[in-house]
Specification:
Blueprint (H helix, E strand, L loop, with lengths): L14 H4 L20 E5 L2 E5 L2 H12 L6 E11 L3 H18 L6 E4 L14 E6 L4 H9 L2 E3 L9 H9 L12 E5 L3 E2 L4 E10 L6 H15 L3 H11 L2 H4 L18 H17 L41 E7 L2 H13 L4 H20 L11 E7 L17 E8 L8 H16 L26 H16 L26 E7 L18 E12 L6 E8 L2 E9 L5 H13 L15
Parallel strand pairs: 6-7, 13-15
Antiparallel strand pairs: 1-2, 2-5, 3-9, 3-14, 4-5, 7-9, 8-9, 10-16, 11-12, 15-16
Helix pairs in contact: 2-13, 3-4, 3-6, 3-7, 10-11, 10-12, 11-12
Amino acid sequence: MAMLDQNHWLHSGEPQDEMLEPLSIGHWVSRFQGKMPHRLGSLLTTLLSIEGLAEFSFDIDGRHYEGRADLNAQLELEIKSTLSHHDLRERIMFAWACLRCQHLLLQSKALSGQDFSNAEAASATDVYFAVDAPNSVSQAVEDAGKQLVFLSDHFQNVDPLDFWVHCQNSGRVIDASQCLAKLFVYPPQKLKGPRSSLKLLVVGSHQIWDGLTNYVWFRNFVHLLNKSIPELRKRIRELLDPSSILKRLPPPQEALYPPIEGSRARQRWFWLLTRILRHIRKPLQQGFVNPLRRKHRYTRAVPLSPIYKPLLDYSKIPPLNSIPCFAKASLKGTKRLHRICREANASVGAGCFALAALLMMELYERREPGIPLSERLPFISGFPLNPRAFFNHASEPDSLMLAFCDGIMLPFLPSHLDLDGRLRLLAKQAHRQLMVFQKRPNIQRDKGGVEYMGSRGPGRLLQMQYISSLERTQAMLPEHLRSGLNPQGAYPMRPNHSTQTCGVSSVGRREALIKPGYYDLDEEDEAFIADFRSSFASVRPREGEFLVGVGGSDEGLWVNASVDGSTNDPALVEEWRKRFERVLDEGGGMETRDYKL
């Protein structure tokens, strides 16, 4: 059996021998077991924290593919202000500085181990979050100002949607070697009396945050905006306490995974069975292709006119174009979906999957009307999963934590069937499959634990996710940077028969973390009050991606889709968007021909 160099992370033995390799610090599984240190202390004034696998995959996206997967997140506030122009800017500046000190990843940069030649603990093969900790309030504010842009300094009027599109279709907005997040502030729009609408845009690497973290950071930013400058100075000073800064660097999710119980021999067998289950698992059947796709994909992105050239880099063209797709269902329609889900004993999240599938089925049916019903393919969807419950992470989200499911399958239903009936059946099917990803096993249904500990069961979700992350990072890296790591050895994972029709990402009800009305704008004694109104976010898509980001609020269901415009037809995407907004207010589906059964 080939022995493993314990100073090297990657395995160098034969694949079949590697299956029973001792679980040493140098072994590929050591990160899961928490043997690899994640907080590395300080190098002079720089704090280091190793990136986890999920974070590293998004680092690859941004670093090698011109900001791919970077997150755009817009925050809309209503403010009442009697502050001067200068004082308003100062309030925003101090609140941004305080937020960066409170949530350290907002001021972090991504550096490779090669950048730390004098750091004994740094590995050249890894990427690290590095935080240059400010030593004073003034330095914290100065550093924050370098990642803050008031758009009114450059333009008299800025269309937020247009600027959004340019941020996603120019060179990467952030410089990861300097900072992983940047804040843009739009010129306030006057409302009645002393009130205005204030919109802000944060562009950041996906490796520091996810949808839930975005809500937490935005909520805390609103709280900070409602504090006075002296209060913000005091809070920043508290956050700069050296004894607390290093402790507040969030660990990678792998560091929180519970260890495999039992002896070392049992651990080895657990990993062996996990990989064999990936090898023999039954793949999902072939699904229908996303009907929004162009007949001929654009091979390169179309450059935009450099109208924001002082701020954005148009000399670099991203691999593909990103197009916006934001939609809202009416409150009446949302209540209808809730009723259907209750009737089906399904979660609202399952209902969102059902709705996304139904819209794709209608467009698939209309685009290819000649296919007999008996030959129609199902809808296949993959989705990101919040893994925090699987390792009892009860703290509020403060970093990226994601797992990925490679698919659920929903049967094709023709549009001449009743809309409620279609949604009810699809929601039931989605709920049944999504329930598999609950943390606790269903004892009555799965007495032997076969499903729970199976190839797609929650009992192995973290381990499956871990191995998939190792494989994914290898596949994403440019070929000359790949190490050849192969956790599966001679037993490759059995893939699904086709790629997903589209992805669906549900962030749940927004009001659980942030909501309007927390601050009273009618308060007369305050010179400045800011209250939350809305937010939305999407990422620079990967090739072929149509990711339906769906959530809800007191105003109804909404979608923020991340769309590859080089692969998907903008006209069909717009058709999908309009259909989403009206389908729950109508009784039937799209017009279609009769089926050949």
